[in-house]
């Protein structure tokens, strides 16, 4: 059962390095007491906006939310199976492919001041945003970057991230989050172990 998240836990973490990894992170602390960051359609619209997929917060429906949660879990299961070297579930593949086959958000060039910028357009933003996320997952799962997807080593954290470090030895979803907690715990452990 997921607990109702505190305000600080409701903030969406955008530290995965890919839209599909950030989308999977909308369910946090999967190995502890899960934190659902998409409890309602409004939260889904807010995630789409904050992820940079829409310049406005789109109106999402309960049906959109149901579709989004199904896609999120299918992508998560595919990534976990791939990381662990296990066979993937054909139902997860079929769902991800079906959503990815829908029209996604078309990039459009716009001008802000004198500088060009990219915005994304679609008649129905929410399903198009989900298609964009699904296509990102397809490209990640079927491409060479899959071997760089890792899970945070904090046992209470379940965030997946793309290890873009030069040595490929990144252990934490973020040094500001779990890495710092591990450093503090290590320091306290060493301090307690010292003879007086």
Structure, described:
The longest helix has 23 residues, at 62-84. The model has no long low-confidence stretch (mean pLDDT 84). The protein has helices at residues 7-10, 19-24, 41-50, 62-84, 90-100, 125-141, 175-193; strands at 27-28, 35-36, 106-112, 115-121, 149-151, 160-162. It has a two-stranded antiparallel ribbon with strand order 1-2. Strands 3-4 form a two-stranded antiparallel sheet. A two-stranded antiparallel sheet has the order 5-6. It contains seven helices and six strands. With 196 residues, it is an alpha+beta fold.
Summarize the structure.
The protein is of the alpha+beta class.
Strand order of the largest sheet: 1-2
β-sheet strand percentage: 5-15%
Total helical segments: 7
Number of strands: 6
Which class do the helix and strand fractions yield?
alpha+beta
The CATH architecture assignment turns out to be Orthogonal Bundle
CATH superfamily: Jann2411-like domain
Shape: globular
Mean pLDDT: 84
The helicity comes to 40-55%
Identify the CATH class: Mainly Alpha
Q: Can you tell me the residue ranges where pLDDT is under 50 for at least 5 consecutive residues? A: none
Jot down its keywords.
12% strand, alpha+beta, Jann2411-like fold
Write the topology of this structure:
Elements: H1 7-10, H2 19-24, E1 27-28, E2 35-36, H3 41-50, H4 62-84, H5 90-100, E3 106-112, E4 115-121, H6 125-141, E5 149-151, E6 160-162, H7 175-193
Antiparallel strand pairs: 1-2, 3-4, 5-6
Helix pairs in contact: 4-5, 4-6, 5-6
């Amino acid at each position: 059962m997921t607990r109702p998240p505190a305000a600080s836990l409701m903030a969406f973490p955008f530290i995965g390095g890919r839209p599909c990894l950030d989308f999977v992170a909308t369910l946090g602390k999967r190995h502890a007491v899960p934190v659902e960051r998409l409890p309602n359609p409004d939260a889904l619209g807010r995630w789409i906006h904050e992820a940079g997929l829409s310049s406005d917060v789109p109106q999402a429906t309960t049906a959109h939310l149901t579709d989004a949660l199904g896609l999120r879990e299918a992508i998560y299961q595919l990534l976990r199976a791939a990381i662990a070297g296990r066979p993937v579930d054909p139902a997860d593949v079929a769902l991800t492919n079906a959503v990815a086959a829908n029209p996604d958000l078309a990039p459009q060039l716009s001008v802000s001041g004198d500088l060009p910028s990219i915005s994304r357009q679609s008649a129905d933003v929410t399903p198009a945003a989900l298609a964009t996320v699904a296509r990102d997952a397809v490209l990640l799962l079927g491409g060479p970057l899959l071997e760089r997807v890792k899970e945070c080593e904090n046992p209470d954290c379940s965030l997946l991230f793309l290890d873009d470090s030069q040595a490929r030895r990144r252990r934490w979803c973020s040094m500001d989050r779990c890495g710092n907690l591990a450093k503090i715990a290590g320091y306290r452990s060493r301090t307690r172990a010292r003879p007086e």
